[in-house]
Amino acid sequence: MAKQFCETCGKQTEHREWIQQKPSMYGTSRKEKLKAFLDGFFSGWGGGGAAAIDLVDRYVICQACGRKTLQNHGEQFQ
Ligand SMILES: [Zn+2]
After folding, report:
1. Ligand 1 center to residue 63 CA distance, Å?
2. What is the DSSP letter of 32?
3. Residue 62 Cα, ligand 1 centroid: separation in angstroms?
4. What tens digit of pLDDT does each residue of 2-59 get?
5. Tally of CB atoms within 10 A around 60
6. Are 59 and 22 in contact (CB under 8 A)?
7. Among 4, 6, 40, 46, which has the minimal tally of Cβ within 10 Å of its Cβ?
């Protein structure tokens, strides 16, 4: 948990980090999902996991009001 400013609350509140997998750019069929998985698997090995990070959105959720804020700027969230 980390204190962070919430626009809805208008003050610093406790926030919880939440990671959501992005909707895949691949199709939804079983075959396409397997392809997406394999692509992610191999690019993850070759590219140091950078591709895997691209597949998720990082949010912080205000523990006071539940406001969800997208936070994909790459900085380390403590
Ligand atoms: Zn809030």
Report:
1. 7
2. H
3. 5
4. 899 999 999 999 999 988 877 766 566 778 777 777 777 666 555 544 445 567 788 8
5. 20
6. no
7. 46
